Amino acid sequence: MFYEPKNGHGLPHNPFNAVVTPRPIGWIATRGADGQDNLAPYSFFNAVAYEPPQVMFASTSAKPDRGDTKDSVANIRDTGVFAVNIVEYAARDMMNQTAGPWDRATDEFALASIQKAACSTIDCPRVADAPATLECKLTQVVQLPGAANLVVFGEVTGVHLRDDCLVNGMFDVTRFKPLTRLGYKDYSVIDEAFSLERPGS
Q1: pLDDT score for 4
Q2: Most CB atoms within 10 A, among 10, 120, 149, 165?
Q3: Is the C-alpha dihedral spanning 17, 20, 26, 28 positive or negative?
Q4: Neighbours of 168 (CB within 10 A)
Q5: Are 114 and 92 in contact (CB under 8 A)?
Q6: From which residue to which does the signal peptide run (predicted)?
Q7: Maximum C-alpha span of the chain
Q8: Containing domain of residue 122, as a range?
Q9: What percent of the chain has pLDDT over 70?
Q10: How does pLDDT run across 173-186, given as a tens digit for each residue?
Q11: How many distinct helices (H) and strands (E) make up the chain?
């Protein structure tokens, strides 16, 4: 089949997210200017540059108590920092609990019984036992077409790697099995990897 998104797809559910898969999940931790901590997952997330290391995530909806966006972006605009926690398969239920439309006063760390720790280079909490956490300073927020489509870019200023995920000096994702987002209500897990030599390398 072929369809133009502007004309609709005619299917029971939108296939777009099911096409662009699997997507890594950025479990974004922030602290508001009022000191309120927040934790929420975003599957429009990825690394975008090496030098300096930079990442992005996109927020595509808004909450009535936050105006044009959600808690994560609102906090980042106020403070200029955020932490990206990598989600392991074992944390899938806790991650899902933090995805709810909770009030801005809700601390999702407490709600989902997630242990928090302090970041080292920024004033922000992080998931204490995450396989990895990227501490980030905001570089820019870009408004995309669509009322609530905001992309947050940040420079990575600190990296936490869980010791059990390091094998022979390399970060081994099969040690923690990254959770990935598919389409609809579906997720997947990475539990094996293989290597390819790039031509000319």
Answers
A1: 97
A2: 165
A3: negative
A4: 5
A5: no
A6: none
A7: 53
A8: 23-181
A9: 100
A10: 999 999 999 999 99
A11: 4, 14
User: How many separate domains does the chain show?
Assistant: 1
> Distances from the Cα of 173 to the Cαs of 23, 68, 89, 104, in angstroms?
15, 36, 11, 33
Give the CATH number of the domain where residue 130 resides. Answer: 2.30.110.10
Structure tokens at 122: 């920024």
Asked if the structure places residue 141 within a domain, the reply is: yes
165, part of any domain? yes
- Closest Cα partner for 47 from 55, 57, 39? 55
CB 114 within 8 A of CB 129: no
CA distances from 153 to 28, 85, 129 (A): 12, 15, 24
DSSP 8-state symbol, 113: T
Band (10; pLDDT cuts 50, 70, 90): very high
pLDDT for position 122? 98
Query: Percent of the chain scored above 90 by pLDDT?
Result: 96
Cα 27 off chain centre by:
4
Question: What is residue 66's predicted lDDT score, i.e. its pLDDT?
Answer: 87
Residue 201 banded pLDDT, cuts 50, 70, 90: confident
